[in-house]
Amino acid sequence: MSTTLTTGTRPTAAGPTSTPMGRLTSLARAELTLLGRSKGVLFTALAIPLVLPFSVYASAKDSIQDATSLSMSEIILPAAVGFSLLFAVYSALVNVFVVRREELVFKRLRTGELRDGEILAGAALPSLLIGFGQCVLVSVACLTVLDSKAPAGAHLIVLGVLLGLVLAVLAAGVTAALSRTAEGSQVTSLPLVFLSMLGSGMAVPLEALPDKLASVCELLPFSPVIALVRGGLTGELSGTETLVQIGLGVAWIVVAAIAVRRLFRWEPRR
């Protein structure tokens, strides 16, 4: 799934008269071109998040609904959003960050006007747009196809998605710092992917787990994201519970941001 950077499409440092937004846009445009040439990463980002919800649908129809009071849309939609965040944003960006580092792209960009934050934001923007677009698409599809009632708190769904997008980017930065090669990044990204799928309420809602296990899983990085999305559908999150989930999500974002600042490598790992 590694991406190969060709000479003709390398992002270059912006000129002296450029604005931060102009530099960010130029870098994001170059990254989008490169992402389009990486068939493996593109397939992972576009296809897998749209296919996995069908497996959740099958298991939900057979057993999960019997163990919870959740409707089908309240099970499938949070799962679909979570899969989009994990595969379209997190997994894709781990690969992008590692490849750009190993091919010295980040090192060259730092010699120009681009700041470190702009470099990472520009590299992440295409995947962020894809992930956000998928979240919107699967939300509309689930609410329409599953004949669901209107969300009780659409603002919580939006907030959960936004927190998830930021967290996915920062988590990708941390994982990239621990990955030596693009091939190795496919392995180092798996623990968080599987842990989140199984323990954050995506493949299996926390309501279906034993109470003690659910109380532990509630503390996982993507658990507050899924809790906010599901709470926006059901309307069952109280004001206090909403604040707790937001606080936990923000706390994970702060921890991940600090880790990226301290651990992220701008030059190849030897």
Automatic annotation (TrEMBL):
- Note whether Cell membrane occurs among the keywords: yes
Location comes to: Cell membrane; Membrane
Q: Which UniProt keywords apply?
A: Cell membrane, Membrane, Transmembrane, Transmembrane helix, Transport
Q: Which residues cross the membrane?
A: 41-60, 75-98, 119-146, 152-178, 190-206, 243-264
A single GO cellular-component term on record:
plasma membrane
Q: Where is the ABC transmembrane type-2 domain?
A: 40-263
Can you say what this protein is called? Transport permease protein
UniProt organism field: Streptomyces triticagri
Q: Give the source lineage, highest ranks first.
A: Bacteria, Bacillati, Actinomycetota, Actinomycetes, Kitasatosporales
